């Protein structure tokens, strides 16, 4: 049962839906978009520093994401005693894994200088946005958990 839940969390997530949607756009409209991409002048300095975006977002997730399952010293015990804590932990584990998995394609494209080509730039963009969506999910989870814990302490 837990394995199925982990699979559900991975495949039925905003990040995964975005990646599927982006792949569909690429397949359906890639040639059209590539023509316009080739017309745009790309700043080479921006390409050198482009990797900072997904790395910093992923770094924030890895550093501050722990606040989802350990909000603070007082309320963490309440959260860990919650019967459905394992579900929260599944979302946390998948989110941390996604943060790393979605960062790797960005790094690969950047290392091979693929950002100057449409295919590489699209691939980089897809996964950089997926990392951002993942981080936003952690951010909203932290807010939701803090709110629930405040209500639980009343």
From TrEMBL:
The chain crosses the membrane at residues 7-29, 49-70, 90-110, 122-141. Keywords: Membrane, Transmembrane, Transmembrane helix. This is Uncharacterized protein. It comes from Shewanella mangrovisoli.
